[in-house]
Design a protein that fits this description.
Helix content: 25-40%
Structural class: alpha/beta
Shape: globular
Order of helices and strands: EEEHEHEHEHHEEEHEHEHEHH
Strand content: 25-35%
Strand order of the largest sheet: 1-4-5-6-7-10-11-12
Number of helices: 10
Radius of gyration: 16 Å
């Protein structure tokens, strides 16, 4: 069985790492370059860097900051935020990103997924999906969760896979920052609907939550932010506990 991955997430706003609850009430969580270096050293399997205000402010991801982070890490590094063209991706890969994540731009122009896969390969393209449960249906939201759509999570996930994306990063907006656990029911359904890896995001608060999302949610990777940024959970301790619980991880 493939090892499950632990993925710290750096949400970047104005060059700083920030963290909120349900996508709002952001607070400062430190310098992204320093945090990236710490996580790489502490045994994180991958790192995700999301420039969370790039799409809203209609500007490109911070390529220079990407370069500075890439210099300090020795693990795969995914970058997202404000990416809307082949040229954008080219710049980020040349500045040290290993994979890129697209979200709003993929919904607005699904052909972008095909174009990026054709140019850079599936293994490089992650599609992030932010969704919220409305009247018992998981509905996709755009622009950092600010713009609701009529698109349903599972149908969009299937289309994303058909267009060639290598992974899906699913964030439950209802669970984000609450520390009450991941959206395991939705994650488990996602894992039966698509055959590409699913990264669970939103809700990590305890070691048990990670165990649950791997066992019940069938996630391939678990992404978290505040529990790592504010040193509530140490990655090495988390992995030892997961290993003890029979979850395959790289120690």
């Amino acid at each position: 069985m493939l090892a499950k991955r632990i993925v710290p997430c750096l949400d970047i706003k104005d060059g700083r790492t920030v963290k909120g609850v349900n996508f709002v009430d952001l607070r400062d969580a430190g310098d992204p370059v320093e945090l990236a270096e710490i996580y790489s050293r502490e045994g994180a399997d991958e790192l995700v860097f999301l420039d969370i205000s790039a799409t809203e402010q209609k500007r490109k991801t911070l390529a220079e900051l990407v370069y500075r982070v890439a210099e300090k890490v020795s693990i795969p590094f995914t970058v997202g935020g404000g990416i809307s063209s082949v040229e954008d991706v080219d710049v980020l890969l040349r500045n040290g990103a290993d994979k890129i994540s697209i979200n709003s731009s993929a919904v607005k122009n699904p052909q972008l997924i095909n174009d990026l896969v054709a140019k850079f390969g599936s293994q490089c393209i992650v599609v992030a999906i932010d969704a919220k449960k409305i009247n018992d249906r998981w509905m996709v939201h755009l622009v950092g969760g600010k713009v609701p759509t009529e698109i349903e999570l599972f149908s969009w996930a299937k289309e994303v896979e058909q267009r060639g994306a290598g992974e899906i990063l699913f964030t439950s907006m209802d669970h984000d920052g609450t520390k009450n656990g991941f959206a395991n029911e939705a994650l488990a359904k996602l894992s039966t609907e698509v055959n590409i890896p699913i990264i669970a995001s939103g809700g990590a608060g305890t070691v048990e939550h990670f165990t649950d999302t791997f066992e019940t949610g069938k996630a391939d990777a678990a992404l978290a932010a505040s529990v790592f940024h504010f040193k509530e959970i140490k990655i090495k301790d988390l992995k030892k506990e997961l290993h003890k619980n029979g979850i395959p991880v790289r120690l």
